[in-house]
Amino acid sequence: MVSAEAETPLEPVAITGKVRYDSDDPAIWVNRADPSKSLVLGTDKHEDGALYVFDLAGRVIEEKCVRGLVRPNNVDVEYGLMLQGKPVDIAAVTERGRRMVRLYRLPDMTPLDNGGIRVFDGEALDEPMGIALYKRSRDGNIYLIVSRKEGPKKGVPLGIPAAR
């Protein structure tokens, strides 16, 4: 039996601005100092794709968007990556067309990856697709987990360490 609550349609609080091609996979970065300045990130999956950044009202923040990505697919965020002794929040996105993962500092979207980190290099099935960041609670190590666009049905290894 379905309750009346389950049948009530959900209404959005905000709707993001449009992307050029094919929006996908949002991630939310919470600004701990001022939650009203939190960001929504999402990919635009195309050969001339982008990583879009929106404010909480859904408006595109053009100066933070990363354009010229080749088939970006998924994005994730993590907090407190130690860089030069200081904690930095990061966004990671798969760039399928270049077989790379891209890393950006939040909230300014400064690149941290020297042009990209190759994944599945030299392998026949080398297109990255899914991505997740994981922070291990016991020591704060952050791990980047990447899945492939295509691959064998069983026994697919995942993951590269992002930082230690």
List the helices and strands and how they pair.
Blueprint (H helix, E strand, L loop, with lengths): L3 H4 L15 E7 L9 E6 L4 E6 L11 E4 L2 E12 L2 E10 L4 E7 L3 E2 L5 E2 L9 E8 L6 E7 L11 E4 L1
Antiparallel strand pairs: 1-2, 2-3, 3-4, 5-6, 6-7, 7-8, 7-9, 10-11, 11-12
Care to describe what's here?
It is a single chain. By secondary structure, the chain is mainly beta. 2% of the residues lie in helices and 46% in strands. The chain has one helix at 4-7, and strands at residues 23-29, 39-44, 49-54, 66-69, 72-83, 86-95, 100-106, 110-111, 117-118, 128-135, 142-148, 160-163. The strands form 3 sheets. Strands 5, 6, 7, 8 and 9 form a 5-stranded antiparallel β-sheet that branches. Strands 1-2-3-4 form a 4-stranded antiparallel β-sheet, with no helix packed on it. It has a 3-stranded antiparallel β-sheet with strand order 10-11-12, with no helix packed on it.
Total strands: the figure is 12
Order of helices and strands: HEEEEEEEEEEEE
Determine Rg (CA atoms, Å). Answer: 17 Å
Distance between the termini: 50 Å
Low-confidence stretches: none
In DSSP terms (H or I, runs of 4 or more residues), the helix count works out at: 1
Shape: globular
Q: What average pLDDT do the residues reach?
A: 88
User: How many strands, what sense, and barrel or not for the largest sheet?
Assistant: 5 strands, antiparallel
Beta content comes to over 45%
Residue share in helix? under 10%
Structural class: mainly beta
